[in-house]
Amino acid sequence: MIGEYERSQAQHIERKKAEVAAAADYLLDLYRRRGRFVVRWAGDERAKVVKDELGNVMGRIPPERWR
User: Fold this and answer.
1) What is the tens place of the pLDDT at every residue in 17-48?
2) What would the DSSP string read from start to end of 21-65?
């Protein structure tokens, strides 16, 4: 369940799928080590932040993975 991607508008779905594919190795490794998470855009940081179910930051997706 990748939060930012669940709420995408229809015209952005393919781009979001490509972003997930580009970061798949990082996201899978994080899931294996830490469990379920959500991805959110942190506008103040200009970063895609990975958070656990309690909202604690687990990591960030490097910009080269989501562009």
Assistant:
1) 888 889 999 999 999 999 999 888 888 888 88
2) HHTHHHHHHHHHHH---EEEEETTTTEEEEE-TTS-EEEEE-HHH
